[in-house]
Design brief:
The chain is of the alpha+beta class and 340 residues long. The protein contains nine helices and 19 strands.
């Protein structure tokens, strides 16, 4: 068994060193922190006072949401809902919960925020990995049903025996909140595990250039240009374990409570909303290339573009990324299919 985790910060550092232009930029305020179970990195541009204020806002916001969203921290909103045995619970995260449920519904349940019992059963929450039996998986799948979550104003109700986990959308939501609160016109927010928020453009007006990780290696295979946009990637390489020669990753298919086997190794979503990026990258991974492409065609109101990488190495991108997507050094000979 083994586990490998590579943060988006690596791709960003590589992008900074290899992709930066020659024009001298103002000195940024840069810092990292550990929050929401991952390393986060922040690059802020502005005068000293504004950057100091923004840094303070980042710290307080992350602390507040971590305290509210952790499924294991006693007295968090999520913990209290999960332990309420079907009783209604007043929560402070109703807006996030509402938006998450909307995404669950529009994706037909390929994103489901009630998959936490299955995630725990596979050992992805503790690192003590195991393969549940077919009977156990059937029982776990029966506990996954986002339609059973009821939200009335600030009151959430979840049937006894079910559990919430907002991890698939939480970092994206917090990224959206931070982008609107920090009071800067140029910043790059790396929320960890491939969730990126670009506030404005780089000083001087150039877009941020962000590397997209190669699922088969440590390099990035493509570059996406972002200005006032977000990007999120879901891939089997991010959290996984191996047993008896089989790889099991953390992205579960709600229908089976087992790792999604859709023929994809990664999905990257670009959107004005980081929450949409996070939620849809997971949902599209579960859907697979054909269904995911049709979903993109059917839902222009979600304002997203996508990059798919298949198990046989095929790269596909949606047409809306024209002019913002390019192959990275060393990958120029790879064929890219444009999805219309």
């Amino acid at each position: 068994m083994k586990k490998r985790v590579v943060s988006a910060a690596l791709a960003l550092m590589m992008g900074a060193s290899l992709l930066a232009g020659c024009e001298k930029q103002p000195e940024p305020v840069e810092f990292t922190t550990f929050a929401m179970d991952t390393v986060m990195s922040f690059t802020l541009y502005g005068d000293k006072e504004k950057c100091a204020n923004a840094r303070s806002i980042v710290g307080m916001t992350l602390s507040d949401y971590e305290a509210a969203l952790s499924p294991t921290r006693e007295n968090s909103d999520v913990f209290r809902v999960n332990q309420a045995e079907g009783q209604p619970v007043e929560v402070g995260i109703s807006q996030l919960l509402e938006r998450a449920l909307e995404l669950c519904t529009v994706t037909g349940g390929t994103l489901d925020i009630t998959a936490y019992p299955a995630v725990k059963a596979w050992g992805f929450t503790t690192g003590e990995h195991r393969v549940p039996s077919p009977v156990e998986l059937e029982e776990l799948a029966g506990k996954i049903d986002c339609t059973a979550v009821k939200l009335a104003g600030n009151v959430a109700t979840l049937p006894a025996g079910m559990e919430l986990d907002l991890g698939a959308v939480a970092k994206g939501y917090v990224g959206d909140v931070l982008a609107g609160q920090i009071g800067l016109t140029s910043a790059l927010l790396d929320l960890g595990q491939s969730t990126i928020v670009a506030v404005g453009s780089k000083p001087g007006g150039e877009p941020w250039r962000i590397g997209v990780r190669d699922p088969e290696g440590e390099d990035y295979f493509a570059v996406v240009e972002l200005s006032d946009m977000a990007m999120g990637t879901s891939g089997g390489y991010q959290r996984y374990f191996e047993e008896d020669g089989v790889t099991y990753w953390h992205i579960l298919d709600p229908e089976t409570a087992a790792p999604a086997r859709s023929g994809l190794t990664s999905v990257t979503v670009v959107s004005p909303s980081a929450l949409v990026c996070d939620g849809l990258s997971t949902a599209l991974f579960v859907m697979g290339l054909e269904e995911g492409t049709q979903f993109w065609r059917d839902h222009p109101e979600l304002e997203f573009e996508a990059i798919f990488v298949t198990e046989d190495g095929k790269i596909c991108r949606t047409a809306g990324l024209e002019g913002r997507f390019s192959l990275a050094n060393g990958y120029e000979d790879r064929e890219v299919t444009v999805l219309e």
